[in-house]
From TrEMBL:
It comes from Lentibacillus salicampi. This is Uncharacterized protein. SUPFAM superfamilies: TPR-like (SSF48452). TPR repeats lie at residues 398-431. Gene3D superfamilies: Tetratricopeptide repeat domain. InterPro entries: TPR-like_helical_dom_sf (IPR011990), TPR_rpt (IPR019734). It comes from the Bacteria.
Length: 465
């Protein structure tokens, strides 16, 4: 499924139309990969859900932050609610040059956050220039005697340019030894003071439930619900459990609309198809959003525990269903029959008869009979199955044209009924029955002249009798 197009605004007056392909969530960054019609790729950057800038990619540097984001981060293919939410709340998306971007970062973020964010862009901006900007932040802290904050910047430089001479020198600088030891031991004090470092540590060990919960606490304190949803989804794919599922549902209900929640649950269900609470909630969403085809695609809705508030909308959908406007597969049609039998037993016979009448307009009776065959033992299906079977049996039997015509009439196929009654009239010219039917059918079709003509023939026949 293709995502909706959106626009990136560059230096030229004409906006660039692109389509999102995927999004990566990684250590606070959200990065949307999008392509234009010329097959050029653009990346749209966010930090903690807020838009930063967009950039056109020529080549991504190896071991860069953006490469790590799409390899080690949480990646979701478009279309996806995360993409829609970020784009809709951060419009318009503009390509910003470095100097205006630096001013923007100075206004919105701490110097440490600014240094970290700058590492996102080494595939788009000179690494030398980025290093200079981060180094400048370090020197400001060191001149002010803020050694812990200075060492926080060193930590960022160690990830960004570990082999740079200055970074090697600072790593072994005795002035920072106490802080280096604290980072090495990953003390609680450091984790409380350096949240960027803490998030890296918790994320790298998120498979461990203790660190996962610490990561979730940190994200919750920063109101980063998109990242939290992504992490819960990842956990559920590997370990389906109410421990992760219940808080996920609460987040979805709080932050996303019904359609967006349905998309998240659908994506999750494709990867964790046997987790029953998930399937139950997804089915309820389909019912609430009147998604009949999706309901039919569920393995067997009657296996789920549905209360009256869910079963009543199903019955309404079944009564309002018009098969002429929908294209359903054989499997979906058989699911439809099953649902009618299970959820609407009082009207099952009438509804199935109505569905079959519609199907016979465009399908061979043999095909329709095969659809019904698995349900032949059900009281609601047996009569209509028998009639379809007789349609097939009598189709070439000239002695049964009257019966065949009445069956076609019952299944709302007047043209075929007329053809059968016409044959019957020729085969039995003294029988008034086919004339009565021909007059009746033409009248109901609005063909008054033809109806009167057969009525007159019937009158004449009765006078001669």
């Amino acid at each position: 499924m293709s995502s909706d197009p959106f626009y990136i605004y560059g230096n030229s007056q004409k906006p660039i139309q692109v389509r999102a392909e995927r999004i990566a969530l990684y250590l606070g960054a959200g990065i949307i990969e999008a392509w234009n019609k010329k097959h050029e790729v653009y990346y749209v950057f966010f930090y903690k859900h807020d838009f930063l800038t967009a950039a056109k990619a020529k080549k991504l540097r190896r071991h860069s932050f953006i490469e790590s984001a799409f390899k080690q981060g949480m990646v979701f293919d478009a279309p996806h609610p995360f993409i829609n939410v970020l784009l809709s709340t951060n419009h318009p998306c503009r390509i910003t040059r470095l100097d205006p971007l630096l001013k923007k970062l100075d206004k919105r973020y701490t110097p440490q956050e600014k240094a970290f964010i700058l590492t996102f862009f080494e595939s788009f901006i000179s690494k030398k220039r980025l290093f200079h900007e981060i180094k400048s932040i370090f020197y400001v802290y060191r001149r002010n005697g803020q050694n812990l904050m200075a060492y926080q910047i060193v930590q960022i430089l160690m990830d960004f340019a570990p082999n740079h001479d200055l970074v090697r020198q600072l790593r072994s600088d005795l002035n920072f030894k106490a802080y280096a030891d604290m980072y090495q031991s990953q003390s609680d004090q450091i984790l409380a003071k350096d949240l960027i470092f803490a998030e890296k540590r918790f994320y790298s060990k998120k498979e461990n439930d203790h660190f996962f919960q610490q990561l979730m606490t940190l994200l919750n304190e920063q109101s980063r619900w998109i990242d939290m949803i992504g992490l819960y989804v990842g956990k559920l794919i590997k370990t389906p459990s109410e421990k992760y599922y219940d808080p996920l549902i609460k987040l979805l209900d709080k932050h996303l609309n019904e359609q967006q929640t349905m998309q998240i649950l659908e994506n999750l269900c494709r990867q964790s198809p046997h987790y029953i609470p998930l399937k139950q909630d997804l089915l309820k969403k389909y019912i609430k959003l009147n998604k009949l085809e999706n309901v039919l695609n569920m393995v067997d809705p009657s296996d789920f525990n549905l209360d009256a508030s869910q079963t009543e909308p199903i019955r309404e959908m079944l009564e309002q269903l018009d098969l002429e406007t929908r294209t359903l597969t054989s499997e979906q049609l058989q699911s439809l029959f099953k649902i009618v039998i299970d959820f609407h037993p009082k009207k099952a016979a009438d509804l199935i008869h109505s569905y079959i009448s519609t199907l016979l307009k465009t399908n061979d009776p043999v095909f329709v009979r095969e659809l019904l065959k698995p349900f032949i033992e059900h009281r609601a299906v047996r009569p209509v199955y028998s009639k379809v079977d007789r349609l097939i049996t009598f189709s070439d039997d000239l002695d049964q044209m009257q019966v065949l015509g009445e069956l076609y009439y019952e299944f709302s196929q007047p043209e075929q009924a007329i053809e059968c009654f016409s044959w019957e009239m020729e085969l039995k010219p003294d029988d008034p029955t086919p004339l009565k039917w021909l007059s009746k059918v033409y009248h109901e079709m609005g063909m008054k002249q033809e109806s009167k003509a057969y009525k007159q023939l019937l009158t004449n026949l009765q006078k001669r009798a």
